[in-house]
Amino acid sequence: MRPHQSNVKSKATGLASAKLLMKAKLWWLPGYPQLAGNRVRWLVVPYAGSRGSEPLELDRSHLRKATYAATKLCGEFPRALPRLVGDADAWRDAVGFQLDRLKAPINHGEPLLADLFATPGRYSDAVRRRAARLRERAPELSRVIAATSWVACARIGVEQKYLSWYESNDERIVRILEATPEAEAVPLVLQLAHLAVDIGPQRVAPLVELLSLRETYTASTKGGGRYVEQLAKAVAMQRQRRKPLTGTPVEPKLPAALRELTGWLLTVEPRARRQSLRVLERCGIPELVGACANWWKRIGDLADEIRKLPPGATGGLSASAFEVPHEWWARVYR
């Protein structure tokens, strides 16, 4: 083997070993704390890799293993580490700062600092002031900002990108937080922020738009045909002086699908992320959701009329009043 080939192999081996060490001992660092009594519950929100968001109860062993791994990475992989984290010295200091903020709460039950932007030591004064202004302008984002201060702690040089994305999308983010189940709301916004930081805000914009649309959470894109059949049947039963069976609109499944898509995007390579989001943008889903919302409103108004009719009356309504407008809608709602 030629000398330069041996050197290349050595570099590749060192990089692979450093990656394995980070994955084994430091995988939980991109997360944020949730207090549960005297314990520190930690919610991991990784910005890449096969793991999704998951809760974790931190203890002394996590801190000990993370400290050992960070020290070993800095000492034994001086060439590989910068390729993984950028500025190795800044990364070492940031990881040390993050672990130090966790030691007292975990080891001695002392109060945990919820927002690292609120204390000096890791972030510059300019970043801390920017976070404070954003928190004052949009107090609904306080939980997201606090979580970001922990999640981004060991990501060097990206905190301004996170804050910039929050500033540009604050109203959309507030709508997403309000519409998403409590336990998933902050992690979802952090995942969207990861994508915006890694592949650019414009590429993730179609997904953010869909998640922030009110119609996404109120208008189902499936099940309309079955509901129409139930309402048409109710009209026929009215004629026979029987109690109407109006049925129930279908619960929208799009929000859960979009949340699942967001998590999946973080597990694939950047190229696959970009391709998937291009496909999403070209599907025209916002227009479809808007049309579905209008259609459900019309059907809902007709259903209300049925409920108000006395037995035996149809009020001029017939089954044809509930027909899907044209063949395209019929295909959508099968």
Question: Could you characterize what this model shows?
Answer:
- The structure is a single chain.
- This protein has 334 residues and is mainly alpha-helical.
- The chain has two domains: 14-180, no CATH class; 200-334, no CATH class.
- 65% of the residues lie in helices and 5% in strands.
- It contains 16 helices and three strands.
- The protein has a three-stranded antiparallel sheet with strand order 1-2-3.
Provide a short characterization of the protein structure.
By secondary structure, the protein is mostly helical. It has 16 helices and three strands.
List keywords for this structure.
65% helix, 2 domains, single chain, disordered N terminus, three-stranded antiparallel β-sheet
What is the H-and-E element order?
Answer: HEEEHHHHHHHHHHHHHHH
As a percent range, the share of strand residues is 5-15%
Q: Radius of gyration from the CA trace? A: 26 Å
Q: If strands are numbered along the chain, what order do they take across the biggest sheet? A: 1-2-3
Average per-residue pLDDT, rounded, comes to 85
| Count of helix runs | 16
* Count of β-strands: 3
Which structural class matches the secondary elements?
mainly alpha
User: Looking at the structure, what is the overall shape?
Assistant: elongated
Major sheet size, sense and barrel closure? 3 strands, antiparallel
**Domain tally:** 2
Distance between the amino and carboxyl termini: 64 Å
Q: What is the fold's blueprint, element by element?
A:
Blueprint lengths: L2 H23 L5 E6 L2 E6 L9 E5 L1 H17 L3 H6 L2 H21 L16 H13 L4 H10 L7 H10 L1 H10 L2 H18 L1 H12 L1 H5 L5 H16 L14 H12 L4 H13 L2 H24 L18 H6 L2
Antiparallel strand pairs: 1-2, 2-3
